[in-house]
Fold this protein.
Amino acid sequence: AQKITQTQPGMFVQEKEAVTLDCTYDTSDPSYGLFWYKQPSSGEMIFLIYQGSYDQQNATEGRYSLNFQKARKSANLVISASQLGDSAMYFCAMREGPGNYGQNFVFGPGTRLSVLP
Amino acid sequence: DGGITQSPKYLFRKEGQNVTLSCEQNLNHDAMYWYRQDPGQGLRLIYYSQIVNDFQKGDIAEGYSVSREKKESFPLTVTSAQKNPTAFYLCASRDRGVRAFFGQGTRLTVV
């Protein structure tokens, strides 16, 4: 079964506008972590933001914030004030189990974001 | 500088050949991972290792093999049994902290 779902294969946003990239996940483990990575055309994976399942507040990192709705099992990424350099593939990922073990670390299919000038 | 090094960046394989992709990290991380990415697709887990001399199959392990003889190294062999090996391969590592660190990737092409 798909553990990470990203329903938007592609998204467009105007420069300087905000955009939300959707991610839903499936796990029965009470302890898990959710991640967002950016992959530009060069292929490297760039870590953006992390949310632990027990974190009370939504994570924020600069222009990135994670809208964590635990009951709905969603972890949407919000990018504020989009820049042309934000054009890339974006992947949602999940680690199941406590962070001190090297468990399976699975990724969603990704969303391609294109920022328009 | 600490990080993960994958080599080579580009690799060409003839039909029926085995090839080995290198992944080395100097971050002192326990866990290491290999992923395959096809064009326009997400990352699929091939193998992962939580500790030296131990590794687990991921979702698409058939046709691949790994070893973990040293903490720093987690090489991936693409065997002749892998019928469609052309893809982008990413290695990652993580410690007991939060994030996984990725290498720059190896692009494998069958010729």
